[in-house]
Amino acid sequence: MNNDMTQIVTDRKTATIEQRAKLFRGFADPSRLAILGALCGGPLVVHELVERTELSQPNVSNHLRCLLDCGLVASDRDGRFIRYRISSPRITALLNDVDALLELVAEGVEACGNYRE
Amino acid sequence: MNNDMTQIVTDRKTATIEQRAKLFRGFADPSRLAILGALCGGPLVVHELVERTELSQPNVSNHLRCLLDCGLVASDRDGRFIRYRISSPRITALLNDVDALLELVAEGVEACGNYRE
DNA sequence: ATAATATATCAGTGAATAATGATATGACGC
DNA sequence: GCGTCATATCATTATTCACTGATATATTAT
Question: Which of B4, B31, B70 to mutate to test the interface with A (most CBs of A within 10 A)?
């Protein structure tokens, strides 16, 4: 995207598009989706997420930090564990909407060679 | 994400996570969001999209190809123009859901330094 | 205090991908 | 046909970003 979008009007629309893109990027990664999917079943501590996603522990922690910063998950310390949970039912809803959309466009998405599988 | 996920079980969940991620990536770019946003107001031909998004013509065409392959937009030839449109109201709905979620998490998303602005 | 467990941090590396510029294709009017 | 407008293609370049490995911090138990 052009960087000289800092024009006279810096209108709210442009700002919101950047935010939207950033939020979408939060979801646009198999590892983070695996984490979010696991958390949709209820809160989990980190090592449980590591088990279920089969990702490395630092990798899970890195993604959790991203998700936490973005406000997509919340965390509570429980002794030496830290329990993570989905921060809002809207997130679950969004994931469901995507699945619904996917039923329509799954074939196309598979076929689209613009990014990696 | 690990590539050796081609295990014994190649279960549907894993496949769907990849699909979901791929679909999200379709939305996770400011240029494509700008194009989709413009099309939410009604069908447009390419040079109209170029005007409104201020992206270069090849760039718009590249993104349109991606969106078309993914099934997120559809196209109809009209003389020497090609008119593009949102392929399903579900897409508009999804964009609205994201905006709603964004109202909750906008601050966090801004603050998250894991990706570019 | 020491060890053990749970989680976080972060620099470095490799892979993915968005934008550009040049060029190709296709449709219309003359 | 020839020129022009509209769009598509594609290789190259530069950026972005996920993963790893090593290490740091925090909590609890002995």
Answer: B70
Based on the structure, what is the number of domains in chain B?
1
Q: Which of residues 46-75 of A touch strand D (CB under 7 A)?
A: 55-56, 58-59, 62-63, 66
CATH assignment of the domain containing B77: 1.10.10.10
- Domain hosting A55: range is 12-87
pLDDT digits (tens, 9 = 90+) for A48-69: 999 999 999 999 999 999 999 9
In angstroms, the CA B87 to CA A1 distance is 24
Quote the CA–CA distance of A70 and A86 in Å, as a whole number.
Answer: 12
Rounded CA separation A45/B80 (Å): 58
- CB of A15 within 8 Å of any CB in chain B? no
CB of B87 within 8 Å of a chain A CB? The answer is yes
Q: What is the ipTM of this complex?
A: 0.89
Residue A84 has pLDDT above 80, yes or no: yes
